[in-house]
Amino acid sequence: MGKVTDAGFVKGFIRMADDGWNLGFHERNGGNLSYRIKEEEVEGIKECFAPAEWKEIGTEVPDLAGEYFLVTGSGKYFRNVSLDPEDTLAIIEVDDAGKMYRIVWGLKNGGRPTSELPTHLMNHEIKKRLTDGRHRVIYHAHPISIVALTFLLPLEDKVFTRELWTTMTECPIVFPAGVGVVPWMVPGGREIAIATSEKMKEYDLVIWAHHGMFASGADFDLTFGLMHTAEKSAEILVKVFSMTDKKRQVMSSADLRKLADEFGVVLPEKFLD
Ligand code: 2HA
Ligand code: ZN
Fold it and tell me: From CA 127, how far away is CA 123, in angstroms rounded?
């Protein structure tokens, strides 16, 4: 069954898992990744599918009825994805009502899709609708410096957005909508999925306090780049705060407006006062 792992989107998914592991975003089984597979990509590998029984998703995603996703497995290590994709990954199909899923490929030694499947699918549903189907990747990681900042800064969208934007000039251009913050919640269920997908209506990056971050994007490069850029800015910020609690100089709202004009991005007014 070499065919599924030969597909371009599977190779891209595996490379992204390796990149996340190499950057230290995925201790043990930390983090998870999902990709909404294109129709033509499904056609190319369908003959390899062996559907298992239908199971409850744990939430409802009617706008994803009939869609297929490549996802990491619950309890699986990002470290092992490239070593054994058929053990660590699964392709799942969502039923006609958007309430059930079944595994059609992968997890050859048993197991379930990611414990964060409700959040992944609810985010996919929002992004599919709000980006006209452009966004296909949802990525959850445990980047060190972003998590560290959730012990220091107030857990407010505006505070995190301004701090990350003004720490590295690339940031307002890479994530012009800003960053959402979800307060600490028990992971793995419908409640945190609802809170996260509400923030995903506005942002492509959502921080989970004392836990990690979710990123949404059109492809693997853009989504990984988003996670990486925000974490890099957070790392600089952690270094600055390690030296002082007073920044000597920082970009102003007027500077942010100039940047937005020059690069043709729209920054929400609520972050510019
Ligand atoms: O262990 O990251 O949020 C996987 C996770 C749960
Ligand atoms: Zn996590």
Answer: 6
Written as six digits, the tokens of 60 are 């409802």
SS3 91: strand
- Looking at the CA of residue 142, tell me the nearest atom of ligand 1: 2
pLDDT tens per residue, range 61-94: 999 999 999 999 999 999 999 999 999 999 999 9
pLDDT tens digit string along 251-269? 999 999 999 999 999 999 9
pTM over 0.85? The answer is: yes
Q: For a pocket test of ligand 1, which of 116, 119, 186, 207 has the largest count of ligand atoms closer than 8 A to its C-beta? A: 116
| 113 CB near ligand 1 (under 6 Å) | no
SS3 assignment, position 83: coil
For residues 222 and 47, give the distance between their C-alpha atoms in angstroms, rounded to a whole number: 30
Q: One-letter amino acid identity for 92?
A: I
Structure tokens at 99: 């309430």
Residue type, 72: T
Read off φ and ψ for residue 100, nearest 5 degrees. -125, 160
